[in-house]
């Protein structure tokens, strides 16, 4: 029995080893990657921990300049982390691209974009007074040295450019020379020269400004154009709300009384003046009420400056 049992146990052991060998090989195949991954993870954690300690030590011992140098690196790492997070986000979580519709009227949209808020005005461009003075001097020289009416008209046009943008000496020159100069009359409209002469009278009348106004009124009387003269005067004094209106109106009426036919021309346009006021020039009260009850005509001066700027640009292009 002993002899026969020994071969049986050895045979059983051999069979058992043959059966367990595949199992061990399978376990080895499964466990080897896990062991490698565990070792790799341990090495990675050790490397990160060492690097963090190194950075901490460097921050504690490095100078401020070196710490400033590491800041961009940290920022790049942070940006890289955000980029990784974005890259792994599902595409369904990203918003779709929205196409902007085509503007059917881009010109109107642009005008609406640049429009000023309500109640605001555009600031007038600044004009160098030295340039205006130079233009006037040039115009006076050309006018005085001209041999023909055409040359004188070119000089007067330069002076008119300065007058339109509001240069008082240029306005005085044109108003003073308008009655006797054909060249001035050819380039200066009647409504402009009447404004040049009237504004100083209605502001703070001097004897010189009064004489210029009288000479101009007499010129229009001789030419049979008192209706034009009276119409422009009333257009310019509308809505005048400056102080001492009564005194300024009396000054104007006194000057009109010295121009034959001027009072009649004004009386025909002022409501309630009557024929008696026409003969006696006693319509100061009616004229004052007309001024107080009408709106100011500031558009005339703005339009004048606009024309002056256009002419100024033409002068600069020469």
Comma- or semicolon-separated keywords:
318 residues, elongated, disordered N terminus, 75% helix, 0% strand, single chain, mainly alpha
Radius of gyration: 49 Å
Number of strands: 0
Total count of helical runs of at least 4 residues: 15
Helix content: over 70%
Care to describe what's here?
- The chain has 15 helices and no strands.
- The chain is mainly α and 318 residues long.
- α8 crosses α11 (245-256).
- The relative contact order is 0.06.
Fold blueprint:
Layout lengths: L1 H60 L2 H24 L18 H9 L14 H17 L3 H16 L3 H10 L4 H6 L2 H15 L2 H16 L3 H12 L7 H12 L5 H6 L6 H7 L3 H9 L6 H19 L1
Helix pairs in contact: 4-5, 5-6, 5-15, 6-8, 8-9, 8-10, 8-11, 11-14
In short:
This protein has 318 residues and is mostly helical.
